[in-house]
Amino acid sequence: MRRQRAQRRAGAPSGGSLGVFVSDEPPRAAGRTAAPALLLGAALLLTGCGGQDKGAHAGASPAGGTEKLPQATTYTTLNDLPRDAAPSAKGDGTVVHPNDTVPVSAKPGAPAMAELPSTQLKGPTWVPVLESRPGWRRVLLPSRPNGVTGWIPDSGLKAARSTSAIKVDLGDRKLTLTRAGRKVGTWPVAVGAPKTPTPTGRTFLLASLAPEKPTYSPLILPVGAHSATLDTFGGGPGTVAFHGWPSKSVFGKAVTHGCVRVPAGALKQLSKVPLGTSVQITD
């Protein structure tokens, strides 16, 4: 596996989970589509954090001469959008899903700097809402740099509210899941090693991948954050993920490439968490 120290500098990152119509719960992570060969490859990278930036930069012109905006996905870097100014803040659980690709701006009404597609990793895009203004929603995105945000029009969105919250304490090496304010469980987990730490701050549950032929985990749950020290890992974009691990001896240790390895019981509960749900990682 080729590993490179990240050369991208902080500027703005990219995202997934539940506008206009509000329901009680967004779609759950469990039971979404099984990962085909291409996604299985992506899933394998997510466990460590790697990959190359597949997205065009804002303002890049395609062969036709017209400007093509970059897609706000886990594969892109969006340096022209604002960062999350309050990475430790707690949201109200509101998540939105664009019914179609929507423009992403640095400010409400400003020119679009990127586009948020309606799907991510073959599943629906659900991103958490950080702020709302008349006609606009500021959302957390799944791109690099970590914590990148953008404003999207409120029209054409489906909204829901996730009552779940995931917290990872890197110091204690524990994961806690709550639902409607009540603790579902706390589990010891394996986190990033000193040279490949798990990134801190708030992110969200981006996707759910079920490999057809699982090796170390039956389910891989990417989040909207990337490794700060690995630019590539096995050919992927360095996306951090929750996943299982065959050996229980790793739990409670700092031994991963940035991902969070969880016990089977934790993975089962995480599989029930809606996409777009807040993930808070603290040290």
From TrEMBL:
Protein name: Murein L,D-transpeptidase
Organism, scientific name: Actinomadura darangshiensis
Pathway: Cell wall biogenesis; peptidoglycan biosynthesis
GO molecular function terms attached to this record: peptidoglycan L,D-transpeptidase activity; transferase activity
Protein keywords: Cell shape, Cell wall biogenesis/degradation, Peptidoglycan synthesis, Transferase
InterPro entries (alphabetical): LD-transpeptidase, LD_TPept_cat_dom, Transpep_catalytic_dom
A Pfam family the protein falls into: YkuD
Biological process, per Gene Ontology: cell wall organization; peptidoglycan-protein cross-linking; regulation of cell shape
Entry annotation: catalytic residues: 243 (proton donor/acceptor), 259 (nucleophile)
Signal peptide as annotated in the record: none
Domain of life: Bacteria
Domain L,D-TPase catalytic: 164-282
Segments for region (Disordered): 1-24
